[in-house]
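Sample intake sheet
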Amino acid sequence: MNTTETARHNVPVTFGDGVYIAHAVAAHRWNGWILPSFTREVADQLAADLAAQEALDPDEYRTLVRWNDELQGYILQSADLESQGYQPEVVTGHDVDDVTLYAIGAGVWTWYEAEEGNK
């Protein structure tokens, strides 16, 4: 299958309260869930939203997302997973159509396409 033909841009996705605009390939799924990638701007908003939720309601299970200049990528950290011996995940960018995208939570979080009214 040619993924260029099935690539979709500007797909509203969610896994919780927030809706984020993503790039996705329709045929690529993880257990039925969409595998989104985000521009740096959208990834930064996702990171800020998660940090704000953590500040209001600390949750050891929440994964926090932070940009790391040295790695030129995002570090995903979860106190719960780290207490079990897991290392933080590093998500670096991949280029699609001359745009750098970051697959934050793809293949791990239960992302799904947001309903029309949630945009």
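Comment: Strands lie at 7-14, 20-25, 29-30, 33-34, 63-68, 73-78, 89-92, 94-96, 99-101, 112-113. Residues 40-56 form the longest helix (17 residues).
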